[in-house]
Amino acid sequence: MPLRRKKSVPAPPTGPQPKGTGTLATLPGNRHAAILGVGGYRPERVVDNNEICEVLDSSDQWIRERSGIVTRHIAAKDGESVIDMSEAAARGAIEMAGIDPEQIGCIIIATVSHPYQTPAAAPLLAVRIGADTAAAFDISAACAGYCHGITLASDMVRAGTVDYALVVGVERLSDFTDPTDRGTAFIFADGAGAAVVGKSDTEGIGPTIWGSDGKHWDVIAQRDSWIDVREQDLGWPTIVMQGQTVFRWAVWGMAPVAKRALDAAGVTVDDLDAFIPHQANMRIIDAMAKQLKLPDDVVIARDIATTGNTSAASVPLATERLLREGEAPRGGLALQLGFGAGLSYAAQVIRLP
Ligand SMILES: CC(C)(COP(=O)(O)OP(=O)(O)OC[C@H]1O[C@@H](n2cnc3c(N)ncnc32)[C@H](O)[C@@H]1OP(=O)(O)O)[C@@H](O)C(=O)NCCC(=O)NCCS
Fold it and tell me: Which of 76, 103, 104, 182 is 20 to 30 A from 59, comparing alpha carbons?
């Protein structure tokens, strides 16, 4: 980066003196960014509630009534890894965006179920899709991860850091779920969703409203740290959840976040074509829609019924489905909202690709 020496920036009066006190050349900034394509991958195996109840003390009726989930997709042992599913979803998004993989400057994978502490999943995905030299890293923001990724990608494109970024939300939660846990076994599922964010002539991604509440760090969490697992021989650390606390937080805390995202984008519910919240629980989705007073003609994503809760993958998977099935119009406005472990959340209004 060339450094223009100017005398205008004063050096600190004491301590070591910097070599240069000039300004740095910077990126162009202020470009528009939009989601140009989305893709999704659902594992082949469909598991219904009766199969879940072969080991879980529950019933099809209870699961349907309390969560709205009828079936979910569970990844196979071989061939449907976090990387495999990401690749399939990414290829769909790249195809819709109409770009070459080499044009992708950055790959962000949002996941909490990539089974390696390091390296991240994203560099391997980069090689798989032919974006070999793209910057590539993972982020951990659980069910809010995809919307966090869209924020980062949008800001990178707007700033001029990259022209195109790939954001993937992917989970193989079946690897981290106790099939006998009544609070999670029927909820969590597997899948991947992806989006290409790129430069655009018009604005396509509104300002993000996001945040966290670390006071409730433990309400959805890996049961034990890796260190405790090793030192106390605790067994596989699955993800556990305080369902009612999460439920209340989501219902009462997230609708105001969604409203702020609408305000920040300068639109109202009447301008929306679709509402795409994290697919956590059908009752949470219904309660949010009611609080937001969504008009009847706003399509509400209810992918959870046949996809389950796929954490970081749920918003892009639901988006991909609404477009593929023609339920939401291409070019329409959608309010998307991710929330989950951390606790963490992020919402933004986007123009559908
Ligand atoms: C998990 C969840 C569906 C449980 O529903 P709930 O209505 O809160 O269930 P409760 O824990 O209050 O239990 C209600 C009753 O159902 C029973 N129950 C709990 N889990 C059950 C299960 N899997 N099957 C059958 N019965 C169950 C309880 O024992 C209790 O029975 P009781 O009334 O006789 O004591 C709900 O809390 C939820 O959806 N939470 C948020 C989940 C979520 O969104 N997670 C992801 C966030 S990213």
Answer: 76
Query: Which pLDDT score is estimated for 60?
Result: 98
Asked whether the CA dihedral 200, 155, 139, 148 is positive or negative, the reply is negative
Strand duo 299-300 + 274-277: pairing:
parallel
Query: What would the mean pLDDT of 58-72 be, rounded to a whole number?
Result: 98
Residue whose CA lies nearest to ligand 1 atom number 28: 182
Ligand 1 centroid to residue 250 C-alpha, Å: 14
Which of 281, 307, 310, 315 maximizes ligand 1 atoms within 8 Å of its Cβ, making it the mutation to test the pocket?
281
Mean pLDDT of the chain: 94
Residues linked to residue 195 through DSSP beta bridges, in sequence order: 38, 167
What confidence tens digit (pLDDT) does each residue in 140-155 have? 999 999 999 999 999 9
CATH numbers and ranges of domains, the chain? 32-200 (3.40.47.10), 209-351 (3.40.47.10)
> Residue 196: what pLDDT?
98
Mutation test residue for ligand 1: of 244, 251, 345, the one with most atoms within 8 Å of CB: 244
Q: Is 278 an active-site residue?
A: yes
Q: Which residue has the tokens 């109202």?
A: 268
Q: Can you give the pLDDT at residue 10?
A: 63
Residue 2 has pLDDT above 50, yes or no: no
Mean pLDDT on 169-192: 97
pLDDT tens string 245-260: 999 999 999 999 999 9
Q: What does the pLDDT average to over 97-110? A: 98
CA of 329 to the centre of ligand 1 (A): 35
Token couple for 10: 């004063």
Which three-class secondary structure state does DSSP give residue 319?
helix
Contact 43, 76 (CB under 8 A): yes
Ligand 1 residue neighbourhood (C-beta within 6 Å): 58, 62, 66-67, 143, 182-183, 186-187, 220, 241, 243-244, 246-247, 250, 280-281, 284, 309, 340
Q: How many beta carbons lie within 10 A of that of residue 30, not counting itself?
A: 8
